[in-house]
Specification:
Beta-clip-like, 3-stranded antiparallel beta sheet, 1 helix, mainly beta
Length: about 120
């Protein structure tokens, strides 16, 4: 998805309230599980999946959402961990979600290589 400035990613259409204590999903993934990681897959509990919205979520070292399981269900959701103003990009930390990235990259946050948490 592309915003008005031409940036690729997933952006809010309204302000979203977030909290570390409350789990309020802003999106429930509809995962299609795959064997190996891809450029757009997300890893959760050791499995990789593709999702039409999930493939648009970019990395940040200071993310505003996280991927989690909802209660005791099998639903995997994207939940805010802080307030996200209208028009801001929704991000996750790939070093938290991924053991190993299929396409490591230099982070715009600090210029370091993002490879996944397997490498510490």
């Amino acid at each position: 998805m592309v915003n008005q400035e031409g940036e690729k990613g997933l952006f809010t259409t309204e302000e979203i309230s977030g909290s570390l204590e409350l789990i309020f999903p802003i999106y429930k993934f509809k995962p299609t599980y795959i064997e190996s990681p891809t450029r757009t897959s997300i890893q959760f509990e050791g499995k990789h999946f593709e999702d039409n919205i999930g493939k648009c979520i970019n990395h940040s070292c200071n993310p505003n959402t996280k991927v989690t399981k909802l209660n005791e269900t099998d639903n995997i959701a994207l939940v805010p961990i802080k307030n996200i103003p209208k028009g801001k990009e929704i991000t996750i930390d790939y070093n938290v979600t991924e053991e190993k990235l299929s396409h490591p990259f230099k982070c715009n946050c600090h210029g370091k290589l993002i490879r996944g948490n397997k490498y510490g």
